[in-house]
Amino acid sequence: SSLSLPDQNGVLLPSLQSALPFLDLHGTPRLEFHQSVFDELREKLLERVSAIALEGKVEERYKKLEDLLEKSFSLVKMPSIQPVVMCVMKHLPKVPEKKLKLVMADKDLYKACAVEVKRQIWQDNQALFGDEVSPLLKQYILEKENILFSNEISVLNNFFSPSPKARRQGEVVQKLTQMIGKNVKLYDMVLQFLRTLFLRTRNVHYCTLRAELLMSLHDLEISEICTVDPCHKFTWCLDACIREKFVDNKRARELQGFLDGVKKGQEQVLGDLSMILCDPFAINTLALSTIRHLQDLVGQDTLPRESPDLLLLLRMLSLGQGAWDMIDSQVFKEPKMEVELITKFLPMLMSFVVDDHTFNVDQKLPSEEKGPIPYPSTIPEAFTKFLQDNRIACEIGLYYILHITKQRNKNAFLRLLPALVETFSDLAFSDIFLHLLTGNLTLLGDEFALEEFCTSLFDGFFLTACSRKDNVHRHVLRLLLHLHHKVAPAKLESLQKALEPTKQSGEAVKELYNQLSEKLELRKPSPAEVTETPSMELPLPTVPTPASR
């Protein structure tokens, strides 16, 4: 060829030849010029690829993209061309298997490709997808535990305060939603991971994530998934109840309709529904609604067995609490409700409500010779036994105790507290209950100055479990960090000794204990204030004068 080398490697455009000397006059290197032309062309090509993906008949546009991929794929490792290849793959609903395998085999390529391409890789590689999802699930559980053990203790701002919609904006839910896209296969895989982890760990936060993920896809109106998840409408209705922290009559009928509508041969859906109901946010809503119903029944002189709404709440609580057993045994039928829960336990709780009313009225009556009537201090043995043997009774009993604490009802609290030392599966020492209890106890702050109150609460309840349960140790220290200034000094000193970490204590306990010790150290009066000796007679430390240095 008669072309000189620069012409051979240049941009062969006749109209350009006469303009190039201008660049030379400005001292612009050819490389810089060629690079900018290249970048410009690449941008145009990327725009064109995105346009092709939207125009013409479906088969034709994908045929064009497949041809383009075939031509360009060999250059995929060139950094300058890679974005174009990735863009083509991103717009192909089905990238050829061979290309996907090559991308998967190369770490850098896999990292660089769009989530649309990764979804196609993941759906046939459960292990690889599991590796991507696993750190997110760990992060999710950690975030939940951090909230439960937060140093901020408050009634108004607790674990259950954020609305469902706000929770779904969390990083993990958003990332998982994006990874799944509209891919039903990936959604099913995530649900399978959640079921497996729930079975392995019994950690109920996985149930929360199950519901949050479905509702996050619902928010985005991804019907491809929502219409095939048989729990969708049930979860949607329950989500509205959780938002209101109450199950009203209209929604109760709806929820009951879903449960009654489970057809023969489809019982497996009960496993999924039970997991949705086992979400602590659902349990919280059902339990709060149950306590409210019981109070209404007292006012109406009605027995629990006569209230269909109450029976439905118990049915859902029972299904939620039975989730682990159902998924573990793979026997999909609703757990049997114990009759005595309805005929004995709930009326007993109602009698406690009546005791409070009676006592309050008594206090207001003019006292006669016999003196004021004392608050009932004993609890029926049956109450304690129910809390030990029956999971639903225990859950409702614990929520009743949270309710009276929130009402600042010290008498009722001290009366029922001894029943919490031994409960079904140690539920009274679970993180969610202790998180809520410590929050509500801040309302009884002034009672902490009283020896009797502290002895009942700490010696009679918390300290019975501290040595065997690290989490209880943590919650007590959280409470004291918040309320130490209210506790009588002598009691505080004995608590500080009793709460000293042991060799078995975890790092979190040691850290909290150190924080508490520092706070108490700052509170101690300085020796100068304590001693009666006139200050002049105290030996003065020798301070070197500036001259003697």
Condensed summary:
Residues 523-549 are annotated as: Disordered. This is Negative elongation factor complex member B. This protein is mainly α and 549 residues long.
What structural category do the secondary elements indicate? Answer: mainly alpha
Helix content: 55-70%
What's the total count of β strands? 0
Summed up, the helix count is 31
Strand content: under 5%
- Unreliable residue stretches: 1-5, 530-540
Could you tell me how far the N terminus lies from the C terminus, measured between alpha carbons in angstroms? 89 Å
Mean pLDDT: 87
Cα Rg: 34 Å
Sheet with the most strands?
none
What general outline do the C-alpha atoms trace?
elongated
Mind sketching the topology for me?
Layout: H1 5-9, H2 14-17, H3 20-25, H4 30-52, H5 58-72, H6 82-91, H7 97-105, H8 107-112, H9 115-122, H10 126-148, H11 164-167, H12 171-180, H13 184-201, H14 205-219, H15 223-226, H16 232-244, H17 249-260, H18 269-278, H19 280-300, H20 308-321, H21 323-329, H22 339-364, H23 381-389, H24 391-406, H25 410-416, H26 431-441, H27 451-466, H28 470-483, H29 489-498, H30 507-523, H31 527-530
Task: Explain this structure.
This protein is mostly helical. Helix 16 runs antiparallel to helix 17 and helix 22 runs parallel beside helix 24. The model is unreliable at 1-5 and 530-540 (pLDDT under 50). It starts with a helix and ends in a 19-residue tail after the last helix. The chain has 31 helices and no strands. The longest helix has 26 residues, at 339-364. The protein has helices at 5-9, 14-17, 20-25, 30-52, 58-72, 82-91, 97-105, 107-112, 115-122, 126-148, 164-167, 171-180, 184-201, 205-219, 223-226, 232-244, 249-260, 269-278, 280-300, 308-321, 323-329, 339-364, 381-389, 391-406, 410-416, 431-441, 451-466, 470-483, 489-498, 507-523, 527-530.
